[in-house]
Amino acid sequence: MNSPYQPLPTFDEVLLCTPQTTSEQVELFLRRCLSPISREEKIYTMLYADELSYDVSSRAEELFQCLQHYNNMYRLVILCNCNREHSHILSVFSQYKVHMIPQRPLAEIQRYLQDHYRVTQPLSSAASVFKDNMCVGIVSSKRAGVGK
Predict the structure, then answer these.
(1) Smallest Cα–Cα separation from 117: which of 132, 104, 136, 89?
(2) For residue 74, which of 8, 2, 17, 13 has the smallest C-alpha distance?
(3) DSSP string, 105-132
(4) What's the whole-number mean pLDDT along residues 77-98?
(5) Confidence (pLDDT) at 146
(6) pLDDT on residue 95
C-alpha cells in the first residue's frame, strides 16, 4: 500500500485455507510463491493457515524446505488466528515469525480499500446494497445464527 494506485492482490497471490484445503492446493500456491522464474514483486499470503490439517501442514513443510533453496527472494505472509498459534504449520514457520503492526493510520487503510472496492456505475449492481456502493461488505453479529 505504498501508493493509492497500487492494485489489490490477485487471485493467485492469496490462499484462503480451510480444514478442507488439500495438499495439492497448498503445493500449487507454494510453487507459485517460491518459483525462481517469478521475478514479479508479488506478496503471497496464506490466510487462516492454522486451519490446515496436520497432513497438509506436514506436506507443506516438506515442500517449503525443498523449494526455498531455489529462491531466497520470496515474499510469503502467513496469517492465522492468534488463539490457534500451536497448530503444526505455525510451529514449523515460527522461526520466521514477525509481529506486525500496521504502518499506516487506520483511516488511510480504509480509504485505500474504499477506493478499490467502490463500484463506479451502481445502476444494476448488487453493490447498491452496501454502504457507499461498495462491492464488498462485512455483516457481523454478537449473536450467532441470527440470519446473517
Answers:
(1) 136
(2) 13
(3) -HHHHHHHHHHHHB-S--TT-GGGGSGG
(4) 81
(5) 59
(6) 83
Q: Are 41 and 98 part of one and the same domain?
A: yes
Looking at the chain, list the stretches that DSSP marks H as alpha helix, in order from N- to C-terminal side: 23-34, 54-67, 88-92, 106-117
Evaluate whether 107 touches 113 at the Cβ level (below 8 Å): no
Same domain, yes or no, for 54 and 124?
no
Same domain, 30 and 69: yes
Answer yes or no: do 26 and 79 share one domain. Answer: yes
Tell me, yes or no, whether 10 and 28 share the same domain.
yes
Residue numbers of the domain that contains 30: 1-103
Model pTM?
A: 0.71
Number of folded domains that form the chain: 2
